[in-house]
């Protein structure tokens, strides 16, 4: 990569970072290209040249965000720690993420093209990774082997469908979102007792 390409990639990264910070604080609809340009220290024309439109920039921001989240998940997945610790780390990461993203951001993700990006990422990357983690849990004796893979997949799909509709969770407080994560992993009974 030559100097021009490096500078271009650095500008694009700066734009994506600025856009994510503004979107996650105020929501996509409330943030203008001019505000993103100012925060990224570039001209609005540069944003249009690199991304074409606000919609395309939003898609790029969300894709990068999901890829970063997947890298974090895979790092946890490959750690040499007991399965319950992996689950706790995944939950902790989700809790930290919930604290950093406003409900306005969740509410503003209504564009069908952006929802398609989220859906594709969920089913092509997140679900297979979660299934691998579930298999680790089964092999190490932490997940009930009596529960079929089909039931687990259905459970994931129900949960995923719910979180893909921001209007369902947009008015919930952050503790409720954290509680949903706890329910997702531990159910209503809670964490198993240590005998």
TrEMBL record:
One of its GO terms (molecular function) is DNA binding. The keyword Thylakoid does not apply. Gene3D superfamilies: Homeodomain-like (1.10.10.60), Tetracycline Repressor, domain 2 (1.10.357.10). Residues 9-69 form the HTH tetR-type domain. The keyword DNA-binding applies. Keywords: DNA-binding, Repressor. Pfam families: TetR_N. It comes from the Bacteria. Residues 32-51 bind DNA. InterPro entries: Homeodomain-like_sf, HTH-type_Tx_Regulator, HTH_TetR. PANTHER family: ACREF/ENVCD OPERON REPRESSOR-RELATED (PTHR43479), TRANSCRIPTIONAL REGULATOR, TETR FAMILY (PTHR43479:SF21). This is HTH tetR-type domain-containing protein.
């Amino acid at each position: 990569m030559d100097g021009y390409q490096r500078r271009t990639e650095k500008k694009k990264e700066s734009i994506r970072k600025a856009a994510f910070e503004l979107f996650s604080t105020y929501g996509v609809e409330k943030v203008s290209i001019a505000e993103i340009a100012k925060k990224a220290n570039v001209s609005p024309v540069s944003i249009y040249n690199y991304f074409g439109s606000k919609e395309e920039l939003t898609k790029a921001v969300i894709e990068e965000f999901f890829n970063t989240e997947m890298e974090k998940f895979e790092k946890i997945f490959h750690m040499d720690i007991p399965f319950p610790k992996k689950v706790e780390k995944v939950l902790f990461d989700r809790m930290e993420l919930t604290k950093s993203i406003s409900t306005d951001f969740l509410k503003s993700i209504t564009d069908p093209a952006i929802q398609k990006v989220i859906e594709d990422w969920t089913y092509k990357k997140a679900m297979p990774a979660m299934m691998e983690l579930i298999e680790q849990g089964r092999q190490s004796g932490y997940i009930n082997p009596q529960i079929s893979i089909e039931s687990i997949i259905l459970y994931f799909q129900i949960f995923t469908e719910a979180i893909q509709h921001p209007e369902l969770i947009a008015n919930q407080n952050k503790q409720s979102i954290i509680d949903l994560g706890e329910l997702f992993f531990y159910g209503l009974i809670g964490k198993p007792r240590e005998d």
